[in-house]
Amino acid sequence: MFIGGIIDNFLLKILIKIFVHNRVISDNLQSIVNADRESNIIYILPDKSQTDLITLQNCCQKIGLSDPLLPIKIAGNLLPRYVFLQDSANFRSAIMYNLQLVESLNFILASHQRNSKLNMHIVLVSIVFRWPISKNRYGKNKITNYKWFSKINKLLKVCCFGRDGCIYFSSIISIRDIQAQYGSNKKIFTKLIRAARIHFIRQRRVATGSQISTRNNLLGTLLQSKVIKKAILEEASSKRISHQQAQKNTITLIQEISANFSYIAIYFTDRIMRWSLGKLYQNINVRGGRRILDIAYKGHAIVYLPCHRSHMDYLLISYILYHKGLTLPYIAAGINLNFWPIGKIFRYLGAFFIRRTFNGNKLYSTVVREYVSELFSNGYPVEYFIEGGRSRTGYLRPPKTGILLMTLQAMLRENQRVITIIPIYIGYEHVIEVESYSNELAGAIKEKEGLFSILRGLKNLRNFGQSYVNFGEPLSLMKYLDTRIPEWRKSIDPIKTQHPVWLTAAVHDIAKNIMIRINNAAAINAVNLCVMALIGSDQYSLPRYQLTQHLNCYLQLLRNVPYSSDAMVPRITAEKLLEHALSMNHFEVKQNTSDDIIILPKNKVKFLLYYRNNIHHMFIIPALISSILIKNRKIDCSELYYQVSMVYPILESELFLHWSRDELPGLLDALVSEMERQGLLKKEKNYISVKEDLVYILQLLATGAQEALQRYAIIFAILMANPTVTRKMISDKSCFIAQRVSVLYGAHALEFFDKTILNTLIFTIRHQGYMQESNDLQYPQDKHLKNIYTILSNLIPQDIRITIERFAIDK
């Protein structure tokens, strides 16, 4: 028996060495390593498993932790460095646990009482081999995560999927701290063991998720829904078809929509993504991942809401979540991506497809709503793009609230289900589709997605520099409703209605809040910062020294007056930032005897503006301050604050800025102080004036506000010249004037005269109370209308102002 055990262990070690490669997941791994150097660590594992133990041993050797198989010597006694929470995985009880664990902990506690210098630590370790998640084929809520696996079965799965596992290290627990807080009370370890059991159960759920229902099982569940049964009856009645035909139509819609998760597809796609992303990006910068783990541990249903820049977005997010040991989400994808073979692959990876518009199709909207509700009721994470589609300009698009409304309705139906939204900012130094976006804005027809378009796009693949994924501040829907609508629970009638009177307004407010949080998590990179500097310069070129000065100015503004605590600002110097930007081949360098000239090629201006727009919101207030100072040269502090406060409400709404009106004075004080520190201006008593020796930096900063100010001036000029103008007339005329200004004065931003963006801006101005609609007529209502136009017209070049006013007056 002894020899057989040695042979078994030897063979097991060989198999694990060959087949097992686990990712270490821990936010405090370095503190664990440091604690291990100073004192001894005891590893607690959930279940007795020789495979897990040897896997842990291999991992500890790689990362520099103590070997779990080497005993600890305490007070002349040898104790094992590892303990299993339970002796067996097939017997679980609220009160039964491994007695050896209790004895070891009690002995260690007593040793700490006798030896004041002793300070040992406990670390909980979970080892999860991510083999195929069992599918619930019968609709029964069976817990299969802790089934007893035979040795042969587990070895087979380790051999097949051992390279797809995760080792989770918890925060370290100091026994000295426990002894200091609870003394010699031995019951504390009973509580600790219970807490550890809960931790391990939650950890496994975080890693493997809930049971996945097969498509057929989900189909049966949805067809049994009272809401869908009613919709089928209404479909048969309204279209005068048989009940069987209406049901058949419903089944077709469910099959068109639903995902079909496949672990095998996930496993092989991960291998392909790992290789391809390594070729495409120098680095994938991730921030805020700990937030998701904390929320997942609490058992919340998670909704991921990223901004949408590229088709790479959903692949990148799923890849990151998978490598952080989290369950992959169900992803709402546009029906345009449901083409062979991509559609089938995406279904295997968790995509469910929805149409761009429901076109009054009540049956379809009911099926989509019930499908989404079913996902939330089972606790599955869900991901969708709140902008509806990819941004063609680089700015955040106005949010689409359809699926967000369904999310809130699902929470109201499942009154106890806690749903937390995770806003996600995604940024790139190169967006694959950026040239096609520019062409579409110029009037080209959008190319339809298909296999051949993907194959053609492969030839353009190269190294795209850095990519950024920042997980922003979470938004708990329950906490939001408790704060904003305290009586919301009383207004819910689960039988008669799922649409309380406050719901629509709440959804729009939540959507705006999410967009603000996405912008709060923006990432500065070398490309968007260099484009911002060069786009405002004469001939789109600057000497290297001046460009470095401008980059330094931008970096200091963001570091000393942070846009938000979630924003990502590079820690490297402006010189290194510029060198990296030049390596991306977006810019040209002209050799010069005195200093190199960095040039933004004119044929690339329209494309590269996209990257500037990603971070434009972070610099718009400093740019507005600079514009006012450049125009006035010297101005009273109160007048500067007044002018900014007049324009700010429109900027706030259009660019999803996070400062409230009450916070604006403090922000302006901080920015003026920082700009004074940098030598850009000087403040004497109540006056602020320009410092002429660095005025060129201020002028370049001011150009960042010109496009916005000119667009606002166009709309307000139309309102001033035509007090009773229809919404359509404002839209048409503002677009016409913007096009003329663009042609006459060389505005390269295509979004400057994009009708969709101008319409959104018109809505924003109306929403801010500057005009009121009545019988489709827009009446200027706000008493400050003339004042704000005076401010705007004063901040734009005189020739542009004259052109705008001339076209605004023309009928």
TrEMBL record:
* Topological relation to the membrane, as annotated: Peripheral membrane protein
Could you name the Gene Ontology cellular component terms for this entry? plasma membrane
Q: Where does the chain cross the membrane?
A: none
Keyword rRNA processing (UniProt): no
Keywords attached to this Swiss-Prot or TrEMBL record, sorted alphabetically, are: Acyltransferase, Cell membrane, Lipid biosynthesis, Lipid metabolism, Membrane, Phospholipid biosynthesis, Phospholipid metabolism, Transferase
**Stored CDD domains:** LPLAT_DHAPAT-like
Pathway where this protein functions: Lipid metabolism; Phospholipid metabolism; CDP-diacylglycerol biosynthesis; CDP-diacylglycerol from sn-glycerol 3-phosphate: step 1/3
Task: Report the InterPro entries cross-referenced here.
Answer: GPAT/DHAPAT, GPAT/DHAPAT_C, GPAT/DHAPAT_LPLAT, GPAT_PlsB, Plipid/glycerol_acylTrfase
Q: What is its EC number?
A: 2.3.1.15
Reactions catalysed, as given in the entry:
sn-glycerol 3-phosphate + an acyl-CoA = a 1-acyl-sn-glycero-3-phosphate + CoA
- What does the similarity note say? Belongs to the GPAT/DAPAT family.
Write out the domain note: The HXXXXD motif is essential for acyltransferase activity and may constitute the binding site for the phosphate moiety of the glycerol-3-phosphate.
Q: What is this protein called?
A: Glycerol-3-phosphate acyltransferase
